[in-house]
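Entry 14. Structure prediction run on the chain below.
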Amino acid sequence: MEFHQFQTFIAPILQQRPNWHVVAVAAEPSDAVRLARHLHPDLILLDLDLPRMKAINAARQMRTVSPDSKTVFLSQESSARLVPELFRFGVLGYVKKEFASSELIAAVEAALQHRHFIGSGGASPELSGAAESHGDRRVREVLNKIAGASREKPLSPPSHEIQFYSEDAVLLDRLTGFVEAALRAGHSAAVCATGPWRDELVNALQHRGLDVDDFIRRRNYMAFDAAKTLSAFTTGESLDRPKLLQVLGGIITSAIDAAWANRPRVALYQECSSLLWAKGRDETAIQLEGLLNVLVSRYDVDVLCGYSLIYFHGEEDSHAIQRLCAEHSAVNSA
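Output returned:
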């Protein structure tokens, strides 16, 4: 994006947030890569209306030279067919330029919190098709409506987010960013997940340059088996509320004690409730999510919950989905 275009079009929008600072403007994708390598900005805005492949290749390169930078694309045209591909290699936001005045702030805020944002003109049949391949369109419609409403409200910490996903890569990227952000800031992370997810997460964190073994030794990173953890506070078909608060509260407290940040926080990812949902125990899963809100109110903890869309089916699930989402401060679906 040329400097005068930035000054007249984008700068006035970003200046609405006085704590945001523009560190550089590049007219060519190659210049953007060079600047990213030296400056490592928190966020990169890329103009997709530059020669498209140059812009996309630049995004890929910047992912390598500045892996912690979040990326948001701007475009003059709707490029809905391209959005899924952009998201697959790490782009977090897509905004059509004609809607930038109303959507760019929200897109940047979402990206800085490592959440995806698809602005007006970015939705497409391809994005909803994944849900339809596992159920019917009604599930996606319900999730899009709830996710859209949650984006309109500022996310105030501590948070309790839910991530619906149709592809494992989506959750892995979101989870990796969630844990990485906590560890790099001197906080701690606790993960209650099944074995394959725990292994994939460690590999992803190591790929991003984190010394996971060192974090484990210092107990800044702790991982637990979701099924075993769940069995520790369930009796038959019921949740043992005091036991749940004791078990998960103990994990959070230990993680806080291990953190070295001035105001330590914990990033907690859990699959216990989604295991219940997968077994058809919707009510119990919703009760568990409600109890997680008790922990969020007691401790400096941010909670992320992952749910695969393969366990949601049609119209009969829409009410339960809304109740499930109501227990969370932010809803994300991809």
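Confidence is low (pLDDT under 50) at residues 124-136, 150-156.
Filed with the rest of this week's runs.
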